[in-house]
Amino acid sequence: MRVEQYCVGDVGTNCYFAINEETGEMLVIDPGDSAGMLAGKIREGGWKPQAVLLTHGHFDHAMAAEELAGMFGIQVYAHEAEKETLEQPRLNVSAMIGRRDVYHADVFVKDGQALELAGTECRVLHTPGHTEGGCCFYFEKEKVLFSGDTLFCQSVGRTDFPRGSMSQLVRSIKGKLMGLPDEVKVYPGHMSATSIGMERRMNPFL
Fold it and tell me: What does the pLDDT average to over 154-162?
């Protein structure tokens, strides 16, 4: 798997392309802004997008999802517990920047569900705490985890937004992520990439 990272939006969100170089198929993770730019990069690479995956419903991760999906005729995936967050401006925190955005997903997934997309398989790991329906997408074969705002390099996601919970977030990380192999590469929603082994050794929140 080839991973490309693009920093989008006013708060510097990491949008990722997960690319199957054998087939040219790819997934877009957390397109929080700049749909036109991201679409241009996809076309420039000659990639064939298969889906948009949202780790959670905050505006800085979801704002461009519907527009980008519409450009390529693909679907937006999110965890089933995130529907309310996506659809309510107070919960998706677009209200904090003076907007009243409502976001949507086409496919709502469950914890532990295996998704066959872009010629590979990823597993949904429900990791509430930053939001109720926050999740990570784990590609076991490739040893890659897209962690959204759950786990950062030597940090964790904020929990001072509506319905956030630090105790729940830490339980999610310890229960769902820390059991993964050390070598799993972690691509977070903000800041630089890390690994499960590094976070197990160095993360002060865990």
Answer: 96
CA atoms within 13 A on the CB side of 122: 29
Instruction: Tell me the average pLDDT across 25-53.
Output: 98
Residues β-bridged to residue 2: 19
What single-letter amino acid sits at 98?
A: G
Average pLDDT over residues 26-39: 98
Phi, psi dihedral angles at 203 (to 5 degrees): -75, 115
d(CA 24, CA 17): 12
Element (H, E) at 62: helix 59-62
- Side-chain half-sphere CA neighbours of 175 within 13 A: 14
Angle, CA of 85, 192 and 132, to the nearest 5°: 20
What is the rounded (10 degree) CA torsion for 119, 28, 149, 152? 70
pTM, to two decimals: 0.98
Where does the pLDDT of residue 129 fall: very low under 50, low under 70, confident under 90, or very high at 90 and above? Answer: very high
Q: Who contacts 68 (Cβ-Cβ below 8 Å, separation ≥6)?
A: 28, 31, 35, 38, 39, 52
